[in-house]
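Lecture 7 notes: from sequence to structure.

We start with a single chain of 320 residues. Read the sequence below before looking at the structure.
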Amino acid sequence: MFDAKKIFKSLLACLAAAILTIVFSPFSTAAYAETESLYLGGFPAGFVLNTVNVEVIGLCEVLTDNGISSPARDAGIRTGDIIEKINGEEVKKTSDINEIISRNYKKYEITVKRGGESLTFEIQPVNELSSGSKRIGVLVKDSINGVGTVTYIDGENRTFASLGHPVTDTDNKIIEINGGTLYGSIIYDVKKGVRGAPGELHGAFESGVIIGNAKLNCPCGVFGTLSENYDFSELVKIEKGSMNDVSIGSAYIYSTVYGKQVEKYKISIAKVDANNKDNRNFVIKVDDKKLLDKTGGIVQGMSGSPIVQNGKLIGAVTHV
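Now the structure, written as tokens:
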């Protein structure tokens, strides 16, 4: 899931006996796990990732002493614009907007990025009647959220790996993040995948259950550090594998398709491509009837599910 319809350039059709592209042996890039043994994931997490961009998601009217006003709309701001600067000062989070416009400038200029081009407009904030604060009439966001799967935990270094692929924007570019939080999550429903339409897991965040803090969004997924009080002692410990350990034949994925219970499902590795430039190193086919009956194969939200062959963690599910 992970807000996939809005955030990712999207997964392709989910087949009944799903053939999947699997990205990375997760120990071959910046995501390298230094310890030789890891704790197996497969459990869901709720992601809230802070971005370095402030995106306009809507325009609104402001009620003033003189009636209704919409400074942003009047200035030419549009939904989808990225607010870069106001009066030359960088805007990296939503609170920056209110802080800058609260100052007593004679003139205000707002610079936005639209379609790869930077545009500058004059804008005149107005005083909101109820609060007396200056407003420009925009609804903005500086974070993204959704549900995905944790791949492994490095207990020695108290770090985690998740998702198996990057969070990208509508142009399929990796989104730069400025930290973020992983919460515990419970899967409460599955939209089954059918030919031509990928399914998805529906999950809810667990209030107050913090797994850790996101630090890096890279081609191999989202990585970060565990919270001090997160207990992983009951997870299965497993040996770290590499591409040299991957072979065509039977293997398993570990994933959660209901509640918080991680289950083991049988798959087959159908193709191996150790030198794939996109780190999509092998293709799997789901053989497990139980999983096929529940989900139709791999669905959105299962990205990051660890893949195990011959007792070693060798990779993670990424794309349908």
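The radius of gyration is 22 Å. Keep this in mind for problem set 3.
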